[in-house]
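Researcher: Re-running this chain for the archive, since the previous output was lost when a drive failed. Same request as before.
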Amino acid sequence: MMKRVGMILTLTAVVTGLSTGAQVIQPKTPEANATPASADRTASGDSPDDPGPLATDLSPAITHADISKAARKVAGWELVRTEDTFNQQWTYAALYDGLLTASKTTGDLRYHDAMVKMAQQFDWKLLNGRFPHADDMALGQAYMDLYLETRDPVRMADTKAVLDQLVVRPDDPSKLLWWWCDALFMAPPVLARMSVATGDRRYLDVMDREWWETSGSLYDPAEHLYFRDSRYFTQRQGNGEKIFWARGNGWVMGALAKVLDVMPKDYPSRGKYIAQYREMADRIASIQGKDGLWRSGLLDPGAYDLPEVSGSAFFTYSLAWGINHGILDRARFEPVVERAWAGMIAHIYADGRLGSIQPIDGQPGKFKPSASYVYGVGGFLMAASEVDALAKEASPKRPRTPVISHGG
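Model: Regenerated structure tokens:
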């Protein structure tokens, strides 16, 4: 609490860019320091007035065939649309994670092979002009997953060099390294994978220290949700509720799944991560919309006409992962996942566009039904992989199609 009060009273500096070694505590505008260059912003997605008709050939049934068909349709459209604009920004990093899982879900190696080609194009290197900015480390997730396939040292060399700088960087508890909740998705999973790859727990230890410093500032222990950053501690939605951003909390839920997936069972603070994960999962499930999805402002859903698919996708991915790993109760959470999956299927267009994704931002907002952005597609494909695992595990009981209302 003292850290939060101190931040509110003292953090007034506005920084719009980072140089090496700089610390950013408070952004001027949403994603001010996390916003890609304008060219990447354009490449990350669009919102056409006429996206064409919605798909009529997809089913929300929880079967491998139906899940794979939806994943293939969305991944195929996105790969054709964006392969020529692949870059090293955080926006695309989430897509790369999703495309890697799409090959596992569908059995189609072209998505995986496109990721190898992408990594080779960038010489397996991260952006590093803003060290220690977490967004520039996000691409390391794909690099590390590809490294763990072959153990080719070239694949992780640059990521390791950047993380090695982070490990020896002096910590300043008065200045949060990860001052925005999205950062927990960008850097911690990379550090966790590096620890697995090298057997060196220093990477996990740095992640652990910084995670709980961020949590101590941004996690609301009463609401069991994360503020996006310190600007929102005192702001309120139109209905008087606190402002909790769907995608921001989706980033955190996704991060918890990714970190716990590789964290050793005997790691000292693993229990704390599980406890926070379960708290958030319970809260997220309790505010699910009638259409199976979540609105951009989690506690004022009536203020937003459309569901927000990127946050919903990361929630779906994380909740399904928790069921698959025995951390969440299947009877309680499987219906939540099934409704969410059906809700997302309803936003796929005939050509494979996945709509209702909020553009780059750092707070709740409104957007067109056609809005499609790469990070949301990445979240959807990750969700598909875990929902598919649910289908395979429960195959004797399938097919079962969830019944949802698309009116709310």
